[in-house]
C-alpha cells in the first residue's frame, strides 16, 4: 500500500457566518495527482491553504479557528482547533504554486530557484546570499528540468507568465518537495503555456513520485492530467473519484448548466 501523505478529517472552517468548509475529509497517497474542482467560492483555496497551515494559525483570517484534524507528510498541521508547530516540518517539503507565481521579480531566475533551498542553508549563508556551488548546480538542474536553463541570469520580470510559473515549479524542485500544492496555476496563462505547465507538473509527478494537488477551473485539464478528481460544492466534498467517472450529470450538478463537460 502506498504511503498516505495528506490526511484531512472532519475539517470545518467558518469565516464569520460563512461556513466555508463543511466536514471535509481528504486522503492523498504518495505519487497521486489530484485535481481539486468546484465553482468559484466552493472552498478550494481555503482547503489548500489549510494543508500548509496557512489558515488555522493565521490571526488575520482566523475569525473562528478551524475544526478538524490535518496531517501532512506524517506530522500534524492542526488538531482540536489549534495550529501545530510541527507544520514547519511538512512545509519545508511542500511546494506551493500560486496563480500569480509569487516570485521575487527583481531577482534573477536562478536566485528565485535558490530560494527553494533556503531551508537547507545555514542562516549565515542565506543572510549573505551565499549559496554553495552544489546548491547552484542543483538549481541549474531544476531549471533544466523545466526547460529554462538558458534564462538563469535573466530577471524574472522579463519572463512571460508561463515561464514564471515554470520558475515557481523549479523552486519547488529545489526545495525537494514531496508534495506540490498548486492553486489555479494555469488560470492566468494562455492555452499553450497552460499545457506546458501541466505537462511539467504531470512529468514530475510521474518521475519523482511527488504528490500533486492542483485546483483547476477547466474540467478538461483535470480529466486530461489528473487520474483523480475531488470536487467541492459550497464547502462540501461533492465528488471524489477517478476523473473518467465525471459524467455530464455530475458536472451539471456541480457547476449548474454553465460548464460544458469535456468531449
Ligand atoms: P475557491 O478557491 O473555491 O474559489 P475560496 O476558498 O477562496 O474558494 O473561498 C471559499 C469561501 O470562503 C468563499 O465564500 C470566500 O468568500 C470565503 N473566504 C475565503 N477566504 C476568506 C477570508 N480570508 N476572509 C473571509 N472569507 C473568506
Ligand atoms: Mg481559489
From TrEMBL:
PANTHER family: AMINO ACID IMPORT ATP-BINDING PROTEIN, PHOSPHONATES IMPORT ATP-BINDING PROTEIN PHNC. The keyword Cytoplasm does not apply. It is found in: Cell inner membrane. PROSITE patterns: ABC_TRANSPORTER_1, ABC_TRANSPORTER_2. It is a peripheral membrane protein. SMART domains: AAA. One of its GO terms (molecular function) is ATP binding. Signal peptide: none annotated. SUPFAM superfamilies: P-loop containing nucleoside triphosphate hydrolases. Keywords: ATP-binding, Cell membrane, Membrane, Nucleotide-binding, Translocase, Transport. CDD domains: ABC_PhnC_transporter (cd03256). The keyword Lipid metabolism does not apply. Residues 6-259 form the ABC transporter domain. This is Phosphonate ABC transporter ATP-binding protein. The gene is phnC. It comes from Motilimonas cestriensis. It holds the Pfam family ABC_tran.
Amino acid at each position: 500500500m502506498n504511503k498516505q501523505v495528506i490526511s484531512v478529517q472532519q475539517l470545518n472552517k467558518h469565516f464569520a457566518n460563512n461556513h466555508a468548509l463543511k466536514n471535509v475529509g481528504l486522503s492523498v497517497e504518495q505519487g497521486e495527482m489530484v485535481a481539486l474542482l468546484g465553482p468559484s467560492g466552493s472552498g478550494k483555496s481555503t482547503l489548500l491553504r489549510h494543508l500548509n497551515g496557512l489558515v488555522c494559525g493565521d490571526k488575520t483570517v482566523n475569525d473562528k479557528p478551524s475544526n478538524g484534524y490535518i496531517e501532512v507528510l506524517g506530522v500534524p498541521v492542526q488538531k482540536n482547533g489549534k495550529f501545530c508547530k510541527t507544520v514547519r516540518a511538512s512545509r519545508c517539503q511542500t511546494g506551493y504554486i500560486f496563480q500569480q507565481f509569487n516570485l521575487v521579480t527583481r531577482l534573477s531566475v536562478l536566485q528565485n530557484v535558490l530560494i527553494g533551498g533556503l531551508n537547507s542553508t545555514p542562516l549565515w549563508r542565506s543572510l549573505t546570499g551565499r549559496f554553495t556551488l552544489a546548491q547552484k548546480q542543483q538549481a541549474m538542474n531544476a531549471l533544466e528540468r523545466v526547460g529554462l536553463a538558458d534564462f538563469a541570469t535573466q530577471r524574472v520580470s522579463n519572463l512571460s507568465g508561463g515561464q514564471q510559473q515554470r520558475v515557481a515549479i523549479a523552486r519547488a524542485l529545489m526545495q525537494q518537495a514531496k508534495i506540490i500544492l498548486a492553486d489555479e496555476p494555469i488560470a492566468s496563462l494562455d492555452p499553450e503555456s497552460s499545457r506546458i505547465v501541466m505537462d511539467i507538473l504531470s512529468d514530475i509527478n510521474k518521475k519523482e513520485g511527488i504528490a500533486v494537488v492542483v485546483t483547476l477551473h477547466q474540467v478538461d485539464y483535470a480529466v486530461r492530467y489528473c487520474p483523480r478528481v475531488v470536487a467541492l460544492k459550497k464547502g462540501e466534498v461533492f465528488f471524489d473519484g477517478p476523473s473518467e467517472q465525471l459524467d455530464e450529470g455530475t458536472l451539471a450538478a456541480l457547476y449548474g448548466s454553465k460548464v460544458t463537460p469535456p468531449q
